[in-house]
Amino acid sequence: MALTDPTDLPPAPQGPLRRPAWLNLRVALLPLFLVQTVTALFFVSDIVFALLGIEVAPINWKLREAMEISAALGLVLGLVFGAQALLSARHEARVATEKLRRASTAFAELLSERFAEWRLTAAEREVALFAIKGLTLAEIAGLRATSEGTVKAQTASIYRKAGVSTRSQLVSIFIEDLMDEPTARFTDIPASTIGPPRRAAQGGR
User: Where is the HTH luxR-type domain (predicted)?
Assistant: First the structure.
């Protein structure tokens, strides 16, 4: 019998699989939903039969009391789970806002670093920022109260200093920087342990 090469075996699982939080919440809410549904149908049918004058055999008082207790517990648990879901949603919103703030801060830092590295003038920095935002030459000229020819010349100077030839290549520099340095820019690691930011060569990418 041939021995199997250990390198051909699939890697062993590192630990037990964990269910997503939303799946655990659904599993926990399912019994509560069933209890609330049964008790609601019971009391609604009781009211409807009384309004329509339909006589039904009275149920055992112990069963009715159990149904009332179940309904009360269902309402209380519904309030508890509802409050928990609200707190969870607020926490996720705060986390998303913080991530967006960090991303905005990281991008602003990249812009400042690159503009300083390329030694752009104040006017070129402003034009470069507008270009990255997707504004046309005419729109940039209108915002800066200058001619399109001046903006075109400044754009050409920016491309030359950055080592690119198109606007898409200019934008790709910052996208690559954000993708290449996620740890240094999106975690709480102290700056002293990260080291200086990576600098790209002056040539095109």
Answer: 113-178
Structural domain that includes position 55:
22-107
Q: Which of 146, 167, 145, 147 is nearest to 156 (CA)?
A: 167
Higher pLDDT pick, 93 / 22: 93
Residue 161 forms part of a structural domain? yes
How confident is the model at residue 183, as a pLDDT? Answer: 43
Determine the longest span between alpha carbons in the chain, in angstroms.
Answer: 92
Helices 61-118 and 122-132, interaxial angle, to 10°?
140
pTM value?
A: 0.46
Rounded distance between C-alpha atoms, residue 46 and residue 56, angstroms:
9
pLDDT given for residue 44 in this prediction:
82
Q: What is the DSSP letter of 134?
A: T
Are 125 and 205 members of one domain? yes
Q: What is the mean pLDDT of the chain?
A: 75
